[in-house]
Amino acid sequence: MTNYNFSVQRGDTAEVVQFRFLVNGVPLNLTGASVLCQFRKTVNAVPALALTQLAGITINAPTDGQLRINSQIFSIPTGAYLYDIEITLADTSVKTYVGGTLNVLETISRAS
After folding, report:
1. What's residue 109's pLDDT?
2. Residue in 61, 99, 73, 57 with CA at minimum distance from that of residue 14
3. What's the distance, CA 87 to chain centroid?
């Protein structure tokens, strides 16, 4: 599994995070796939945020192995969250190719 860490400011609109999955140098075909991404404080904690291809994730180029976490506001409490992206392929095999840490940082500037 590839480790990818990123940070967002709590309450800000986070930019798109793009992923391209290659298996032995060949794009993974995501046609008909379902995707689940959960953010948790610890491995066994209740998810603070869950994203799917129906809510927060777009498979934008399925035959080229590309998906993205859409631009969105992360309003979960500040701190470090573990995550991974679990893909269930059309043949029902389940693969987890990427995971890491999301750091949600507190915004310093606030409207009065």
Report:
1. 83
2. 73
3. 11
